[in-house]
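[step 3/7] fold_predict: job queued, chain A
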Amino acid sequence: MDKQQFPVFDICNLNTEKNSNELFSIDFFRGYVESNPHLQQVHNHNYYHLVFFTEGSGEHLIDFEKFEAKAGTMYFMKPGQVHQWHFKEKYDGFVVNFSANFLDWIGINSLLLQKIRFLQSIRVQDHVVEIKPELRAEISIYFEKMMAENQLNDTFSNLKIGFLLLDLFIDIDRNLTEEDHLAKNQQSSVLLDNFQNLIDQNFKTKKLPKEYAELLHVTPNHLNAMCKDVLGISAGELIRTRIVLEAKRLLVNKEISVSEIAYILNFQDASYFVKFFKKYTNFTPEQFRKQYYN
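[step 4/7] structure written:
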């Protein structure tokens, strides 16, 4: 199937004078949005995206969950997530986009990003971080320094940007409370991360917890207990949530029929998919599509 599921943008699709390469870009948020009106429709991108909102208010839709856009809030998005901005008044801040292999390209192991819980968390709400008022000026300085290095664009600029980016993430992580962190212990964190990665890779073909437990070399009971202990939901619910999310992402594109979506998600037939979707959203696929566009 060659139909585009929904708009997917790369860094090279962005209009910004401050973009010095295809792996990293930084700009003031207001100018970034005004120069890229195509980003105000629902879309996703294949790079990491973070915004530090310093002025104004509005609404940010991330994977169909709504969050308030307000000063002092930082929003992190991973490649593949769907989002959209709505603004109520004058807005501004800083925006950074970087490829998943940006750090590798400059000689820093990108696996370090997996230690950033608020960036890698499977819960969308963990990607929205309220920056304490006393830290906001300090956080802004990180962005200002990255902008200066990006404009300088000498032999060491990208390396300094990479270090500044990691410093920013570490400072934010250190200032989160224990309640803000997803994992209750490191072992659960690693297992949950691996489980989530496997779900992302296999949710279209593997829909049962026992299939993932086998891949993770644990028992289904252990996997289920860990999910309930850390997330408060079962392993099966986590798998079904991912399937429903992908269905919602596909429904964004009106050109893809419900039958085609059922086929993409490996359901036996369209009627079974409709029943599944309605059970977990209280809407039929067409009702969700109409409600979303309305």
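[step 5/7] annotate
The CA atoms of residues 14 and 268 lie 40 Å apart.
The beta strands are 8-9, 24-28, 43-45, 48-55, 57-62, 65-70, 73-77, 82-87, 92-98, 128-130.
exit 0
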